[in-house]
Hints:
Blueprint: H1 5-21, E1 38-39, H2 42-57, H3 61-76, H4 78-92, H5 97-110, E2 120-124, E3 127-135, E4 138-142, H6 148-161, E5 165-169, H7 175-191, E6 199-202, H8 207-215, E7 219-225, H9 228-235, E8 240-244, E9 250-253, H10 259-271, E10 283-287, H11 288-300, E11 303-305, H12 309-319, H13 335-341, E12 352-356, H14 362-365, E13 372-378, H15 381-392, E14 398-402, H16 406-416, E15 420-423, E16 443-444, E17 450-451, E18 458-466
Parallel strand pairs: 1-6, 4-5, 4-7, 5-6, 7-8, 9-10, 9-14, 10-13, 11-12, 12-13, 14-15
Antiparallel strand pairs: 2-3, 3-18, 16-17
Amino acid sequence: MDVDVVLVEKLVRQAIEEVKNKNLLNLDKFESVKNYGIFETMDAAVEASYVAQKQLLNASMTDRQKYVDTIKATILKKENLELISRMSVEETEIGKYEHKLIKNRVAAEKTPGIEDLTTEAMTGDNGLTLVEYCPFGVIGAITPTTNPTETIICNSISMIAGGNTVVFSPHPRAKNVSIKLVTMLNKALEEAGAPDNLIATVKEPSIENTNIMMEHQKIRMLVATGGPAIVNKVMSTGKKAIGAGAGNPPVVVDETADIEKAAIDIVNGCSFDNNVPCIAEKEVFAVDQVCDYLIHYMKLNGAYEIKDRDLIQKLLDLVTNENGGPKVSFVGKSAPYILNKLGISVDENIKVIIMEVEKNHHFVLEEMMMPILPIVRTKDVDEAIECAYVAEHGNRHTAIMHSKNVDKLTKMARLLETTIFVKNAPSYAGIGVGGEGTTTFTIAGPTGEGLTTARSFCRKRRCVMVDAFNIR
């Protein structure tokens, strides 16, 4: 039987037009709908990320840098920077808008791209060997409620620069801002010609989805930025894991320090984003000779001192949960907010709550992530350094010292072995805010990578050519 193809096509077109004219069919609904990296299930997110990473492998290094530059430019647009900073504070109820602006900006400006992926070359009579940083594949990244957007920004830049794609599992209390940011970045990357879904996540973050991600066979590396529990969990999966865990950064102030500057630096560092950064000053050990001066200048620069022992205990009971940790409802809250709950009214110029306590006080030994700063008086700098070593708990995260004594600075640096050691500056200088160096919000002390960059998320591979390209 012969079929008139032309006639069939004509009849089909007529039928479609009749259906459309009668509003029985809306063909617009059949157009592909972009999800911009947001998926219903974690499995779908990982599968899409896997496809994207295979496409990224075929991209040039120039393309990778273009994608990095696109992420940076997108974040640095004034309206985008302000939006994600405001959303982060409003949704999580943690930190300060003004400081989120700084953190998001510095994450975009000072996280390195492909320039971090240096090449090693060895030549000799037997030829040429190259060692290069190469992708792991699909990376699963867990982000915290304290630094939700900052972590997504710096991780995305570093991981994509390294040739990887990333699936984020955000904290549920930062769901909306995380989804907004991932969508924003994927839209910009699409316009730059990047593969779809270089950055992915799920519509409903949860512990269950985090577990699915960690166990998924196509996830080649796990990165956890958070507390000890989640870091230990990713390290026990059997996969390559990078853990950015807790800290309890001590500050030592000795008699050689510029006390007035030290006071300003400590108040500013402790109060930065209401003390939620893991690098922020958490307790002070000051030599007796200068301790009173230090407290005096701190009070002149935004510190409110509590001297009454009963009131200090009342504050401890207020902000501590039944397990001794910080109450979530007080994490990242301002000093005026916390004092108000104690029945004390102060103006917004108050940044930090200080009190003098003993070295074994709970505020000294427990990382609280709120602008409460205990001060311990010591007989000399050696005792202060020893106390700082105990209070840091071997996290080897961050420590700060205000001193002009090079020998004592060296002693503290060697004893505490912290990933970041800041001298005579606020703690945030250690992540490039007012200090030299790159920025990250994934500081991997437990697994040893330190301040992570693109190379942290790469494998080192060797390429060998024998009997050639030795031109010396």
